[in-house]
Structures are given as C-alpha cells and as structure tokens.
Amino acid sequence: MSYAPADEQPSIFLLAENARQAVLTVFNWTESSRTRAINLTQLGLQDPDHHKLIDVLGDEGCCDVSSGTLHLVQKPHSVRMIKLVDNTVPAMAPSINLRAPVRGTAGEALTFQADAASREAPLLTCHWDFGDGTSLEGTRVQHAYTRPGDYQVAISVTGLDSVTNHKTVTVSIAGAIATRFDPTQIRRAE
Predict the structure, then answer these.
(1) Beta-carbon count within 10 A of 149 CB
(2) How far apart, in whole angstroms, are the C-alpha atoms of residue 53 and residue 39?
(3) Which of 35, 75, 83, 189 could serve as a FRET partner for 66 with CA atoms 20 to 30 Å apart?
(4) pLDDT mean over 52-69
C-alpha cells in the first residue's frame, strides 16, 4: 500500500495471490485526472518483463508497460484493477482437502466441505455432484439422500487461471424415508 501526497489517501494496493499471480488496485480519489508511473520492481515483482497485465474490469487498452514501469491515466474518482500474471511460473491445479462422511441415513442432512490444501492454489469455485441426480455449488454444502445405496460424490474445483481438479468419495446410505401416509402420526401443536 502506498500513495503520494497528491493522492490524498492510500491509493495503490498489491495483493499477491500466489507465486504466479497478483492483483494491483489503483484508486484515484481526487477531483482531477491522474497520470501515474508505477515501478513494478519496487512493488516486489522479480522480473516485470515476464508478466502479462490484464485489466480485471475489461479495459483492453489500459496498461502501457515499458522498462518495468506501468503507465496509467486515470479519470477522477476511478479505480483500476490489474491482474499481473508471471508467465514463467506454471499454473497449478488446486489441491483439495475434502471432508465428507462415508456413511449416513436416508433423510439425514450430511455436510460436505472442501478446502484448498495450499495457499498457492486457492479454490475459486466448487461444484458437487451427489450421484443421485442433484448437485450444489459452494465450499461447504449439505445434502440429504432419499434412498439407501452407495453413491459416488464428485467434486470439481476451479482455481486461478481456470485450472480444475476433481475428487470423488463414496457415501453409503442406509435406512429409508417413510412415504406412506399414517394419520396416527399426525400431532397437533397445543
């Protein structure tokens, strides 16, 4: 985080996501346009010439880099988010720490959770397929099976650079859910 006195407050933030990728966010808090020259080596990038710069907000002509210095022109009250990708570091598939039950009972809400095994390869999306025709999104989900049997639960995760990884686990479900109407089981709240 840094800023010049003309910025009026902190305006340059670098978030290193892993060895391959970082996000540079530059704010212009002022009432006038700002021209900036940001030395990427001073921000901690080892070799700025090996980095691909991508404007996260979609401005194709946003970034001019020469001799390791990023040149920006910003409108008043604006923000620039620039993804810096080091092309010399290969993209990594995210490793998954998976927590899932191996058995359960029909009708029981089972909890499934996935976490990244490494900070270098975070999980950005998680898709669960429960093997019974249903699926959910999220790192922590709950699911209840309606019939007994062995089910293959598959998780598909996506990390940085859209790299994916997959894992499966078998869940054995016992018991059954009563489907017959029994009026003697109806109780009124008093």
Answers:
(1) 12
(2) 14
(3) 75
(4) 77
SS3 120: coil
Do 96-174 and 5-86 fall under one CATH topology? yes
For residues 130 and 151, the answer to whether their CB atoms sit within 8 Å is: yes
pLDDT digits (tens, 9 = 90+) for 11-60: 889 888 888 888 999 998 889 898 888 888 888 777 767 788 888 887 76
pLDDT of residue 45: 76
Q: Could you say which of 3.40.220.10, 3.40.50.720, 3.40.50.261, 2.60.40.1180 is the CATH number of the domain covering 5-86?
A: 2.60.40.1180
Half-sphere exposure of 183 (CA within 13 A, CB side): 0
Q: Which CATH architecture has domain 96-174?
A: Sandwich (2.60)
What Å distances lie between residue 2 and 14, 38, 130, CA to CA?
9, 11, 47
Q: Which two tokens stand for residue 78?
A: 């604006």
Tokens describing residue 146: 């309606």
